[in-house]
Amino acid sequence: MRKNSKAAIIDAAIYLFNTKGFNGTSVRDIAAKADVNAANISYYFQNKNGLLENCFTVFFEHYLEELEKGYALLECGAEACLKAMVDHVLRYQCENIQLTRFILREMTIDSQVVREIMSTYHVKERFMFKKVLEAGMETGEFKKLSVQFTILQLKALLSMPFLNTHYVTEVLHVQPHEKYFADKYGQEISKWIRGTLCAEQQPEKMLINI
Protein backbone atom coordinates (compact mmCIF):
# COMPACT_ATOMS: atom_id res chain seq x y z
CA MET A 1 0.00 0.00 0.00
CA ARG A 2 1.29 3.47 -0.81
CA LYS A 3 2.37 5.74 2.02
CA ASN A 4 -0.04 8.53 1.11
CA SER A 5 -3.11 6.52 0.24
CA LYS A 6 -5.41 9.56 0.26
CA ALA A 7 -3.37 11.31 -2.43
CA ALA A 8 -3.17 8.06 -4.40
CA ILE A 9 -6.96 7.69 -4.24
CA ILE A 10 -7.52 11.24 -5.51
CA ASP A 11 -5.02 10.80 -8.36
CA ALA A 12 -6.59 7.48 -9.36
CA ALA A 13 -10.10 8.91 -9.23
CA ILE A 14 -9.22 11.91 -11.39
CA TYR A 15 -7.60 9.65 -13.98
CA LEU A 16 -10.51 7.19 -14.07
CA PHE A 17 -13.21 9.88 -14.01
CA ASN A 18 -11.52 11.36 -17.10
CA THR A 19 -11.14 8.11 -18.99
CA LYS A 20 -14.25 6.17 -17.93
CA GLY A 21 -16.54 8.94 -16.69
CA PHE A 22 -17.86 9.38 -13.17
CA ASN A 23 -20.77 6.97 -13.59
CA GLY A 24 -18.57 4.45 -15.38
CA THR A 25 -16.06 4.33 -12.53
CA SER A 26 -16.62 2.15 -9.47
CA VAL A 27 -15.10 2.37 -6.02
CA ARG A 28 -13.34 -0.92 -6.76
CA ASP A 29 -11.85 0.57 -9.92
CA ILE A 30 -10.45 3.49 -7.92
CA ALA A 31 -9.11 1.26 -5.17
CA ALA A 32 -7.38 -1.01 -7.70
CA LYS A 33 -5.84 1.91 -9.57
CA ALA A 34 -4.67 3.53 -6.32
CA ASP A 35 -3.41 0.19 -4.97
CA VAL A 36 -5.35 0.62 -1.73
CA ASN A 37 -8.10 -1.22 0.09
CA ALA A 38 -11.61 -0.02 -0.85
CA ALA A 39 -12.20 0.63 2.86
CA ASN A 40 -9.70 3.49 2.63
CA ILE A 41 -12.02 5.33 0.25
CA SER A 42 -14.86 5.01 2.76
CA TYR A 43 -12.54 6.18 5.54
CA TYR A 44 -11.41 9.34 3.74
CA PHE A 45 -14.42 10.20 1.58
CA GLN A 46 -17.37 8.04 2.73
CA ASN A 47 -18.25 7.12 -0.85
CA LYS A 48 -17.69 8.03 -4.50
CA ASN A 49 -19.84 11.15 -4.22
CA GLY A 50 -17.73 12.32 -1.32
CA LEU A 51 -14.65 11.84 -3.48
CA LEU A 52 -16.30 13.87 -6.24
CA GLU A 53 -17.03 16.73 -3.84
CA ASN A 54 -13.42 16.63 -2.66
CA CYS A 55 -12.21 16.99 -6.26
CA PHE A 56 -14.44 20.05 -6.73
CA THR A 57 -13.25 21.61 -3.47
CA VAL A 58 -9.56 21.03 -4.18
CA PHE A 59 -9.84 22.43 -7.71
CA PHE A 60 -11.80 25.58 -6.89
CA GLU A 61 -9.96 26.48 -3.69
CA HIS A 62 -6.65 26.45 -5.55
CA TYR A 63 -8.24 28.12 -8.59
CA LEU A 64 -9.44 31.01 -6.43
CA GLU A 65 -6.05 31.27 -4.72
CA GLU A 66 -4.42 31.75 -8.13
CA LEU A 67 -7.08 34.24 -9.17
CA GLU A 68 -6.56 36.24 -5.97
CA LYS A 69 -2.82 36.51 -6.64
CA GLY A 70 -3.59 38.47 -9.77
CA TYR A 71 -6.49 40.37 -8.20
CA ALA A 72 -4.12 41.68 -5.52
CA LEU A 73 -2.43 43.77 -8.24
CA LEU A 74 -5.50 45.90 -8.96
CA GLU A 75 -3.72 49.01 -7.67
CA CYS A 76 -1.20 48.56 -10.50
CA GLY A 77 -3.96 49.07 -13.05
CA ALA A 78 -6.93 47.10 -14.36
CA GLU A 79 -5.20 45.79 -17.49
CA ALA A 80 -2.12 44.56 -15.63
CA CYS A 81 -4.35 43.04 -12.94
CA LEU A 82 -6.60 41.20 -15.40
CA LYS A 83 -3.62 39.86 -17.34
CA ALA A 84 -2.06 38.59 -14.10
CA MET A 85 -5.31 36.89 -13.11
CA VAL A 86 -5.50 35.18 -16.50
CA ASP A 87 -1.86 34.11 -16.36
CA HIS A 88 -2.15 32.58 -12.88
CA VAL A 89 -5.37 30.71 -13.69
CA LEU A 90 -4.17 29.51 -17.08
CA ARG A 91 -0.95 28.08 -15.67
CA TYR A 92 -2.79 26.42 -12.80
CA GLN A 93 -5.15 24.73 -15.24
CA CYS A 94 -2.30 23.64 -17.52
CA GLU A 95 -0.36 22.18 -14.60
CA ASN A 96 -3.45 20.29 -13.41
CA ILE A 97 -4.83 19.28 -16.79
CA GLN A 98 -6.57 16.06 -15.73
CA LEU A 99 -8.37 17.63 -12.78
CA THR A 100 -9.25 20.72 -14.83
CA ARG A 101 -10.73 18.69 -17.70
CA PHE A 102 -12.84 16.63 -15.34
CA ILE A 103 -14.14 19.53 -13.27
CA LEU A 104 -15.00 21.69 -16.27
CA ARG A 105 -16.87 18.80 -17.87
CA GLU A 106 -18.79 18.11 -14.66
CA MET A 107 -19.73 21.80 -14.45
CA THR A 108 -21.82 21.35 -17.61
CA ILE A 109 -24.13 18.95 -15.75
CA ASP A 110 -27.03 20.24 -13.68
CA SER A 111 -26.47 18.62 -10.29
CA GLN A 112 -26.65 19.55 -6.62
CA VAL A 113 -22.87 19.75 -6.37
CA VAL A 114 -22.65 22.05 -9.39
CA ARG A 115 -25.39 24.32 -8.03
CA GLU A 116 -23.50 24.59 -4.75
CA ILE A 117 -20.30 25.47 -6.62
CA MET A 118 -22.16 28.12 -8.61
CA SER A 119 -23.45 29.70 -5.41
CA THR A 120 -20.05 29.82 -3.70
CA TYR A 121 -16.87 29.67 -5.77
CA HIS A 122 -18.31 31.10 -8.98
CA VAL A 123 -19.82 34.01 -7.08
CA LYS A 124 -16.36 34.90 -5.73
CA GLU A 125 -14.83 34.56 -9.18
CA ARG A 126 -17.45 36.79 -10.81
CA PHE A 127 -17.01 39.36 -8.04
CA MET A 128 -13.28 39.69 -8.73
CA PHE A 129 -13.68 39.88 -12.50
CA LYS A 130 -16.50 42.41 -12.10
CA LYS A 131 -14.46 44.65 -9.78
CA VAL A 132 -11.49 44.69 -12.14
CA LEU A 133 -13.59 45.42 -15.22
CA GLU A 134 -15.56 48.17 -13.47
CA ALA A 135 -12.35 49.69 -12.10
CA GLY A 136 -10.88 49.76 -15.59
CA MET A 137 -13.98 51.41 -17.01
CA GLU A 138 -14.04 54.01 -14.26
CA THR A 139 -10.42 55.02 -14.88
CA GLY A 140 -10.81 54.97 -18.65
CA GLU A 141 -8.43 52.03 -19.13
CA PHE A 142 -11.25 49.87 -20.46
CA LYS A 143 -14.02 50.68 -22.91
CA LYS A 144 -17.57 50.94 -21.63
CA LEU A 145 -18.69 47.39 -22.34
CA SER A 146 -21.20 44.97 -20.83
CA VAL A 147 -19.47 43.57 -17.76
CA GLN A 148 -21.60 40.43 -17.77
CA PHE A 149 -20.92 39.56 -21.41
CA THR A 150 -17.23 40.37 -21.06
CA ILE A 151 -16.96 37.92 -18.17
CA LEU A 152 -18.65 35.26 -20.31
CA GLN A 153 -16.18 35.83 -23.13
CA LEU A 154 -13.23 35.69 -20.75
CA LYS A 155 -14.48 32.50 -19.13
CA ALA A 156 -14.89 30.93 -22.57
CA LEU A 157 -11.30 31.76 -23.46
CA LEU A 158 -10.05 30.25 -20.20
CA SER A 159 -12.06 27.04 -20.39
CA MET A 160 -12.29 26.11 -24.09
CA PRO A 161 -8.82 24.49 -24.45
CA PHE A 162 -9.46 22.20 -21.48
CA LEU A 163 -12.93 21.17 -22.59
CA ASN A 164 -11.69 20.45 -26.12
CA THR A 165 -8.13 19.20 -25.68
CA HIS A 166 -8.21 16.96 -28.75
CA TYR A 167 -9.39 19.85 -30.92
CA VAL A 168 -6.60 22.06 -29.56
CA THR A 169 -4.03 19.37 -30.36
CA GLU A 170 -5.44 18.93 -33.87
CA VAL A 171 -5.31 22.65 -34.61
CA LEU A 172 -2.12 23.68 -32.82
CA HIS A 173 -0.23 20.36 -32.70
CA VAL A 174 0.53 20.96 -29.05
CA GLN A 175 -0.93 19.61 -25.81
CA PRO A 176 -2.71 22.09 -23.48
CA HIS A 177 -0.57 20.99 -20.53
CA GLU A 178 2.70 21.93 -22.24
CA LYS A 179 4.49 25.08 -21.09
CA TYR A 180 4.67 26.36 -24.65
CA PHE A 181 0.87 26.34 -24.86
CA ALA A 182 0.47 28.23 -21.56
CA ASP A 183 2.98 30.87 -22.70
CA LYS A 184 1.58 31.29 -26.21
CA TYR A 185 -2.10 31.11 -25.27
CA GLY A 186 -1.55 33.56 -22.42
CA GLN A 187 -0.05 36.00 -24.93
CA GLU A 188 -3.07 35.60 -27.20
CA ILE A 189 -5.50 36.33 -24.36
CA SER A 190 -3.41 39.39 -23.48
CA LYS A 191 -3.84 40.59 -27.07
CA TRP A 192 -7.59 40.02 -26.72
CA ILE A 193 -7.64 42.11 -23.54
CA ARG A 194 -5.67 44.87 -25.22
CA GLY A 195 -7.68 44.86 -28.44
CA THR A 196 -11.18 44.21 -27.09
CA LEU A 197 -11.24 45.79 -23.64
CA CYS A 198 -8.65 48.53 -23.58
CA ALA A 199 -9.66 52.01 -24.65
CA GLU A 200 -7.67 53.49 -27.49
CA GLN A 201 -4.92 55.80 -26.38
CA GLN A 202 -5.88 59.31 -27.42
CA PRO A 203 -2.98 61.11 -29.13
CA GLU A 204 -2.00 64.34 -27.52
CA LYS A 205 -3.59 67.29 -29.27
CA MET A 206 -1.12 69.30 -31.24
CA LEU A 207 -1.18 73.06 -30.79
CA ILE A 208 -1.56 74.82 -34.10
CA ASN A 209 -0.42 78.39 -34.41
CA ILE A 210 -2.68 80.45 -36.64
TrEMBL record:
PROSITE patterns from the UniProt entry: HTH_TETR_1, HTH_TETR_2
Record-annotated HTH tetR-type domain positions: 3-63
Pfam families given in the database record: TetR_N
DNA-binding region: 26-45
The keyword Iron appears for this protein: no
A GO term for molecular function: transcription cis-regulatory region binding
Keywords: DNA-binding
InterPro entries, sorted: DNA-bd_HTH_TetR-type_CS (IPR023772), Homeodomain-like_sf (IPR009057), HTH-type_TetR-like_transc_reg (IPR050109), HTH_TetR (IPR001647), Tet_transcr_reg_TetR-rel_C_sf (IPR036271)
Entry-linked SUPFAM superfamilies: Homeodomain-like, Tetracyclin repressor-like, C-terminal domain
NCBIfam families named among the record's database cross-references: septum_RefZ (NF037937)
Listed name of the protein: TetR/AcrR family transcriptional regulator
